[in-house]
Design brief:
With 262 residues, the protein is α/β, with parallel strands linked by helices. It has seven helices and nine strands. The protein has two domains: 123 residues, Aldolase class I (TIM Barrel), CATH 3.20.20.70; 128 residues, no CATH class. It binds iron/sulfur cluster.
């Protein structure tokens, strides 16, 4: 048995490739990351052995199949994720699971895989915590400006489809986290972004929340995060202005956050 007495966040990266080039991503200009012809995918034997080995961990494991690439690029994404959940009865291998994705490759089969895995009677109800979508834009034009690929409409379709299928199947998990990193290119779209997702969540009758940084707890949500860049004070200022406009956080005259207005 292996243990440190501390919970473990385990990132088993299915691939280090990515199919888009977010302007705020340190990976975006690395040609290796965008060489989609490269066979840069985790092998089945490595995944299986890694998942099986979790049985010997005494610490609580939180598993994520992503680090820097887009996990849904893996041609066997469904098989890999299903294997992990199929063998996790009673949470014997991992206690939590989360998925970070740009959402562009979430087809119908993947959606059903995620819903199946997130709703197993054989493990704790909160095992599959959330799917985090890096969206960061509302209109296709701004999406293209930020991500360099014209996938904006497809991403919106896929996220809505996941939520619709979840509701149609009467399920609650996985929660959906729709992220928006505030930057000069998209700041004017923040109210449209919030309105759009509010309308979708409300139409589906789900409880949701707004956060002004990483979500502090699990629920369906929209969140607005500041950009990390060399001129951090400028990014922080812009973030505050947008939050103030949205009414998510107010500012006093000195530009300091005042109490959460939600
Ligand atoms: S989707 Fe993720 S890995 Fe790909 S460029 Fe954007 S931030 Fe980077």
């Amino acid at each position: 048995m292996t243990g440190t007495g501390q919970p473990i966040n385990l990132n088993l990266e299915l691939t280090d490739l990515c199919n888009i080039k977010c302007r705020m991503c340190g990976q975006a200009e690395n040609p290796k990351v965008h060489n989609l012809q490269a066979n840069s995918f985790m092998k089945w034997d490595v995944w299986k052995a890694s998942i099986d080995a979790l049985e010997s961990y005494t610490d609580e494991v939180s598993l994520c199949p992503h680090w820097l690439g887009e996990p849904c690029l893996h041609p066997e994404f469904d098989r890999f994720v299903r294997y992990a959940f199929d063998n996790n009865e009673g949470n014997r291998l991992f206690r939590h699971f989360k998925l970070h994705t740009n959402g562009s490759l979430l087809n119908d089969a993947r959606i059903e895989t995620l819903l199946d895995c997130a709703n197993r009677d054989s493990m704790a109800e909160d095992t599959f915590r959330f799917v985090h979508f890096s969206v960061d834009a509302f209109t296709p034009g701004v999406y293209y400006a930020i991500k360099k690929f014209d996938y904006g409409e497809r991403v919106y379709r896929n996220i809505v489809r996941l939520m619709e299928r979840r509701e149609a199947r009467g399920l609650k998990r996985p929660y959906v986290t729709n992220a928006f990193i505030v930057m000069p290119e998209n700041q004017h779209e923040a109210p449209w972004y919030l309105d759009y997702w509010a309308t979708v969540f409300d139409r589906l009758g789900v409880k949701w929340e707004i956060f002004y940084d990483w979500p502090t707890h699990e629920t369906d949500n929209v969140y607005f995060r500041r950009l990390h860049q060399a001129d951090q004070p400028a990014a922080d200022r812009l973030h505050r202005i947008v939050l103030d406009q949205l009414g998510v956080l107010g500012l006093d005259e000195a530009g300091t956050f005042v109490e959460d207005s939600f």
